[in-house]
Design goal:
It is a single chain. The chain has 486 residues and is α/β, with parallel strands linked by helices. It has 2 domains: 264 residues, Rossmann fold (3-Layer(aba) Sandwich); 187 residues, 3-Layer(aba) Sandwich (Rossmann fold), CATH 3.40.50. Helix content is 38%, strand content 18%. The chain has a 9-stranded mixed beta sheet with strand order 3-4-5-2-1-6-7-11-12, with helices on both faces. A 6-stranded parallel beta sheet has the order 15-14-13-16-17-18, sandwiched between helices. A 3-stranded antiparallel beta sheet has the order 8-10-9. Strand 14, helix 13 and strand 15 form a beta-alpha-beta unit.
């Protein structure tokens, strides 16, 4: 594949290793880029879960003398979707019990700076004249703080490859003691306000924001929000200063994995043209979570981390009022202990009305998207969000707080938007329990107008949230950074 060559450096990639949306993007975007002619290849750490899924463990390079880092090697493999995969194999750093970032007790690995410093360094070496590979990327696409040092290493090495840095969630910043600058063999001169220094410490995220040739984030609205104090997490000044180098591109979804016409997890498949199967999934979901089997009552779904960011505390607060509307509530997720306890307590107090599964289940997440009538996402901030996209594809109308990617992807249902065919859900402004309740109440009102409800559901299912549009936007950014034309 001739032409544009891109190394996609990431700390997780689905389906090999996943903790959140970054993995989904890392699995899907490079494949979509390859489909439009970009030679994209993925670099990921060799965690135990990744190594166990490799077929051949073919070593293509060794890194025995990177200053400050243990010896490592590079394995070549292919993703299940065919995308070339480079696995950074360093057993002392990556092959452990636990997750990519934390141990089995949920504590951050104490050597995360070294672990992701190595990932960043190797990505930069592959983009430089010192690369041991025959393949040389024109550009390194870095993702979140775990690869934030790559643009800095590229800059200090005067490397040939350019860099793009994507912010998936500005709240996670990779902050470490100032001595880490020397440990990772960064030049002392970079430890300043215009470099990697952040309130006296080293920030991997700030390194990416400071030194990348271009910054992207995962929705147009979030790109604007993070330049403001309310959403900037202390980086708003830097981002506003670099606004000319900042582009928001809405994520796509895997339309093969999330397709109600072919979804292997559903009780019965359905489509926009043949909606009968949706009712069967509602019955199955009600049965699975111990809810009353009732085809008429509106069923609200939640698949989420139970955290302050996701705003589920507001939903839990108003849940007793909601079931008097009446509605049913089906919840799947885990997170903050108090929220988990509150969700379980609600399910115990309101049997048949509220069901809660604490933990994660891929099968149940698909069933909730298919079987619910409405899907609730009251996030306080949301860089992009994926569940509101899945919901629309399954004819499950999202109820969202109008921020970030939620505002970019859900058109509030009004008489005007319903008439012109653009309406795709319900949005509320102002993060209060009263505003969330009013939005749900408004949605329930429309639910009982079956003609309008069917029209709105068909609007949702007609929308295209596939990756091609996003991939073309990223390619345009790459070409701009490289000073190339199509």
């Amino acid at each position: 594949m001739a032409g544009l060559k891109v190394l996609f450096a990431t700390s997780e990639v689905a389906p090999l290793i996943k903790t959140g949306g970054l993995a989904d993007v890392s699995g899907a975007l490079p494949a979509a880029l390859r489909a439009i002619g970009v030679d994209a290849r993925v670099l990921v750490p060799g965690y135990r879960q990744v190594i166990e899924q490799l077929n051949q463990n073919k070593a293509v390079a060794a890194f025995d003398s990177l200053p400050g880092f243990p010896a490592a090697r590079l394995l070549s493999e292919k993703m299940p979707n065919g995308t070339p995969l480079l696995v950074l194999d360093c057993p002392s750093l990556y092959q452990r019990e636990g997750g990519p970032y934390q141990d089995t007790q949920g504590r951050d690995w104490p050597d995360n700076a070294l672990r992701f410093g190595l990932l960043s360094k190797v990505a930069a070496v592959l983009g430089s004249g010192d690369s041991p590979l025959d393949w040389h990327p024109d550009l390194v696409h870095c993702n979140d703080w775990q690869t934030g040092l790559t643009p800095a290493y590229l800059r200090f090495a005067h490397a040939s490859a350019s860099s793009v840095f994507t912010v998936h969630n500005l709240a996670f910043q990779g902050i470490f003691p100032p001595g880490t600058v020397n440990d990772l063999h960064l030049p002392p001169s970079c430890f300043g306000i215009d470099g990697v220094e952040y309130f006296g410490k080293l920030s991997f995220l700030k390194a990416g924001l400071s030194y990348a040739d271009h910054i992207t984030t995962v929705s147009p609205n979030y790109a604007k929000e993070i330049q403001q104090e309310a959403f900037g997490f202390g980086m708003q000044g830097l981002l506003a200063k670099r606004s000319g180098d900042l582009t928001g591109i809405l994520n796509g979804i895997d339309t093969d994995e999330w397709n109600p016409a072919t979804d292997r997890y559903l009780a019965k498949k359905f489509s926009r043209a043949r909606m009968a199967g949706k009712a069967a999934n509602k019955r199955e979901l009600q049965s699975r979570l111990g809810l009353d089997i009732d085809p008429e009552v509106p069923l609200l779904g939640v698949v989420s981390r139970l955290t302050h960011q996701k705003g589920l505390d507001l939903l839990l607060k108003i849940a007793p009022r909601l079931i008097r509307l009446p509605v049913q509530l089906a919840m799947l997720g885990s997170g903050e202990v108090k929220m988990q306890q509150a969700a379980r307590a609600l399910a115990r107090r309101h049997p048949g009305k509220i069901g809660a599964h604490i933990g994660f289940s891929e099968e149940l997440s698909h069933l909730i998207e298919a079987g619910a009538d409405l899907f609730v996402m009251p996030s306080r901030f949301e860089p992009c969000g994926l569940n509101q996209l899945y919901s629309q594809r399954y004819g499950t109308l999202p109820i969202v707080h109008a921020i970030g990617g939620l505002a970019d992807s859900v058109v509030d249902c009004t008489p005007e938007t319903l008439k012109d065919g653009s309406a795709s859900g319900f949005a509320f402004h102002g993060m209060t329990a009263a505003n969330l309740y009013a939005a749900i109440q408004r949605a329930i009102g429309l639910y009982h107008d079956q003609a309008k409800w069917k029209a709105l559901r068909k609007n949702c299912m007609a929308k295209d949230f596939g990756w091609q549009r996003s991939a073309e936007a990223y390619r345009a950014v790459y070409l701009k950074v490289l000073g190339r034309r199509e």
